[in-house]
Amino acid sequence: MSWDSFIYFAVPSVLFWFFGAFLAWKPLRHKAAVASTLIGLVIFFSYIVAMWISLERPPLRTMGETRLWYSFFLPVAGLLVYSRWRYKWILSFSSIMALVFICVNLFKPEIHSKTLMPALQSPWFAPHVIVYMFAYALLGASFLMALWLLVRRKAASEEEIQMTDGLVNVGVAFLTFGMLFGALWAKEAWGHYWGWDPKETWAAITWFSYLFYIHFRRLRPRNWKAAMAILLICFVFLQMCWWGINYLPSAKATSVHTY
Amino acid sequence: MFSKPWKIKDGILVGCGLILVGLLLQYLSGRIEWEIFAWPVNILSVVFLIIVSLVIHLLRSRFGFCGWISSLASAVPAIGFSLALTIVMGLTRQVPSQMPKAADPIGISQMLRFWPFVLCYTWMVLTLMTTVIRRISTFKWKKDIPFMLSHIGLILVIVCGTLGSADLLQLEMTVTEGKTESKAVSEVDRSLQDPGLSVFLKDFSIDEYPPKVYVVDRASRKIVNRAEFISAELVPSSQNLSGWEVTVEKALPFAAPAEALIRKDSISFEPWEGDGAVHALFVKARKDGISKDGWISSGSHEFEERVLDLDENFALKVPSPAPRRYSADMAVTSRKGERVEKTIAVNEPLKIDGWKVYLVDYDNERGRWSKIAVFELVRDPWLPFVYIGIFMLLAGAVCMLSLSGGRKTNGKS
């Protein structure tokens, strides 16, 4: 098994995942949505197993190989959240995110042979990045929701605001996982759990800004416009943390998070 | 202003006041010297914070301030002000805390030692602590557990992380292969320290990625296109590099030039496992009927790097491969008589007698032939409390998932 046959597994998996995501929006189709996502996962996992056997080692060494696991775990996380809490949108999100990583593997194959520096070779690597990606996706959705409500609506319905709150809450929970997994990993790799490295500083800024939103919502539940404006700013901080610091003079060349 | 009950506006005034007082303190007394919080000052500070919070809680209906500080009208501006100062920190280039002073006249380039920053975070911690105490007094299991987990968790992480940093020891120790070392230098002030451990380095080794062949500029030897290379993991392997059809025919991971065969412009390599052995590859390149072949090699402290000239502008080069993993086989004995023998690597530290030993570096000049390993020795007595805080926050986040609006969606769908 090699990367050449990846597409024959990737395409059916993605089709099953999107079919499941579609069913999740329909009332009374929970079981079918779960089943479709599961079938996609089985197909995808069989490719990982086949790679594992043919490489005679777990496919976790190159960036391309770790992306395989993201693409696998994203629908797994989506499925877990969906089967427990029935957010209609969650499977759509996890499927789109998985598709992005699959596309990178399909269209940018040269990245497969990129080497992984020793600090990155840790069991924490995959969970740290996966939960962050998941959080970013959810908070990105809350940003779109806030933008739409601010631009298009004079009055937002209770349901729309609650959905935005829901996206933020789940997003912040995943953001917390990502940040703390990072702290636990840093202790093993660099000797300390928090170093106020620019990436870490901006991760703290992002985290506190969403906490600000959550507490502001409780303090002023009726002032939804200000709350949505806060969400827009929060997302700017998130972008800064994700890639903006690479262009920030104060952070350039000082971050241990640039690879 | 400041009439009972205090509102968010009063909170904004408190925040501005703290910044002003902080600036004044910074001006009068200089930056915060966290070192004075070393044991037992830090534990006394924790006790002091708890007593202050309890007193505020008991006086909550007598004074507007005491009722306000455990309310959302304090929480929101406290987060806001702390956030604002953290943003300033994110936007200014920070000077390491060990440096004797900040790089700017105000002190914001050492934000962790900047009074306004610390005062705003202290305000946030007091709000957290008084709110937790208030909620404990009306505790309800189902409703309050997620709240307690995340808020107490955050208090533990901030308070123990900050005050505990005064007791944190970070030392650096360099050990030569086959030798024992028991002295280390402080990472803070480079002073000589005795960690009470003796470290014996049996063996240091580097496992490398397969070497890669690149097209480089002949004069500067800089890589033309980082995305174009041949990995010598499997030989023979061919690929088109900048228009040249390049084949790696032979690969020797440990090699030396065969002296007898050195001629003016041709050189041969043979397997050799001695100190300073290089990666040698036999490569062929073809373009428009022109054909070139020859040995290229990475460099070491013993042998020069060899490239193969393709034309007047370009050459083929094999840089020293990146390390995949480096490890130190070692034996550590503590003064108390505890002994640990282990191979440690990046991400795989060793634990002994309250210390954690990390492999951080080696002699980069000699690469895989490094005879030394550089270790970091860390002792952080407050770590268990920070970890309890981290795990409480994680548990709080799990609760947040289960409580956030999901049931409503569930009910409707």
Explain what this protein looks like in three dimensions.
The complex is a heterodimer of chains A (259) and B (413). With 259 residues, chain A is mostly helical. Chain A folds into two domains: 3-109; 125-247, Four Helix Bundle (Hemerythrin (Met), subunit A). Chain A is built from eight helices and no strands. Chain A has helices at 6-25, 30-55, 63-85, 90-107, 125-152, 158-190, 198-219, 224-242. Chain A is flat. The two termini of chain A are 29 Å apart. Chain B has a six-stranded antiparallel β-sheet, with no helix packed on it. In chain B, strands 8, 9, 10, 11 and 12 form a five-stranded antiparallel β-sheet that branches. In chain B, strands 2-5-15-16 form a four-stranded antiparallel β-sheet, with no helix packed on it. Chain B has three domains: 8-167 and 385-412, no CATH class; 169-207 and 324-379, Tick-borne Encephalitis virus Glycoprotein, domain 1; 210-321, no CATH class. Chain B is elongated, with a radius of gyration of 31 Å. Chain B has helices spanning 8-29, 41-58, 64-68, 72-91, 115-137, 141-164, 383-403, 406-412, and strands at 169-176, 180-181, 184-186, 192-193, 197-208, 212-217, 230-231, 237-241, 244-257, 269-271, 278-287, 290-297, 308-309, 314-317, 323-334, 339-345, 350-352, 355-362, 372-379. Chain B starts with 7 loop residues before the first helix and ends with a helix. Residues 405-413 of chain B have low confidence and may be disordered. Chain B has 413 residues and is α+β, with helices and mostly antiparallel strands. Chains A and B meet through helix 3, helix 6 and helix 7 of A and helix 4, strand 15, strand 18, helix 7 and helix 8 of B.
